[in-house]
Amino acid sequence: MALSALGWVLADQERADRLLALTGLTPEILRDQLTDRAVLGAVLEYLAGHEPDLVLAADALNVPPERLVAAREELAR
What we know:
Shape: globular
Order of helices and strands: HHHHHH
Number of helices: 6
Number of strands: 0
Strand content: under 5%
Radius of gyration: 11 Å
Distance between the termini: 16 Å
Helix content: over 70%
């Protein structure tokens, strides 16, 4: 789910730029550590911190927003 959410974020340049600016992630980190729990958690944390994008991402992924938040919590364990 986190990878799908990342794909959704990266499909929009403005949203992708904001993700990088707010999380400190870089394109290189995303490429080299794509499956790292911390990186995926940062993507979901980014979405959880901006409700409009959280709702849009959840709609695009056909899941309730709460599921994305729960996935973030699962990755944090």
